[in-house]
């Protein structure tokens, strides 16, 4: 069984995915795959440098390897929809390759996959069920500010996603993350009870 977990930025997708992991699901974090694997791919780095110049990378580690300066990249792509779409087209195939390999390696496992752009990119077909983690907009902005993201940038990133109300409509299940951690955990338990046993 594969669960696709989506929701607005700052709504708690990772919290729900970790909770499912604690209950025996295998977890994949698509953003983490991009950060740690896709953006480390020399071919992807070369494409980024070709498009944005040397300022988008820096040398790091004892071996002086090139790494992507993600804040610089984010500034470029969130300010220009064409650049954001180009980056998605560059990085998404690498994410899907990791998904495929993971699912193939453990075909009988139950999977919880964090997918921020699940509906935006029409990725529902990958999953048996979709889950939206949601909260009120004020709560969402407050959480992003607590992470150190200025309100203007937070609003900019939220605006690039499908409206949360639409994600709620499209999802098979909705978890409301505005109460205590134990309230969210209880919702996760209810969700698991509602899923088919297989």
Describe what this molecule looks like in 3D:
The chain is an alpha/beta fold. It has two domains: 1-25 and 111-198, P-loop containing nucleotide triphosphate hydrolases (Rossmann fold); 31-109, no CATH class. It is built from nine helices and seven strands; from the N terminus they run βαβααββααββαααβα. It has helices at 13-22, 30-36, 42-52, 70-78, 81-105, 137-146, 151-159, 164-170, 181-194; strands spanning 2-7, 26-29, 57-60, 65-68, 111-114, 129-134, 173-176. The strands form two sheets. It has a five-stranded parallel beta sheet with strand order 2-5-1-6-7, sandwiched between helices. Strands 3-4 form a two-stranded antiparallel sheet. A hairpin with a 4-residue loop joins β3 (57-60) and β4 (65-68). The longest helix is centred in the middle third of the chain and has 25 residues, at 81-105. The chain is globular.
Spell the H/E element sequence: EHEHHEEHHEEHHHEH
| Overall tally of domains | 2
Shape: globular
Beta-strand content? 15-25%
Cα-to-Cα separation, first versus last residue: 7 Å
**What is the arithmetic mean of pLDDT?**
92
Largest sheet: 5 strands, parallel
Number of helices: 9
Q: Strand sequence of the main sheet, in spatial order?
A: 2-5-1-6-7
- The oligomeric state of the chains shown is single chain
CATH homologous superfamily classification of the largest domain: P-loop containing nucleotide triphosphate hydrolases
Low-confidence stretches: none
Structural class label: alpha/beta
**What Rg do the Cα atoms give?**
18 Å
CATH architecture of the largest domain: 3-Layer(aba) Sandwich
CATH topology of the largest domain: Rossmann fold
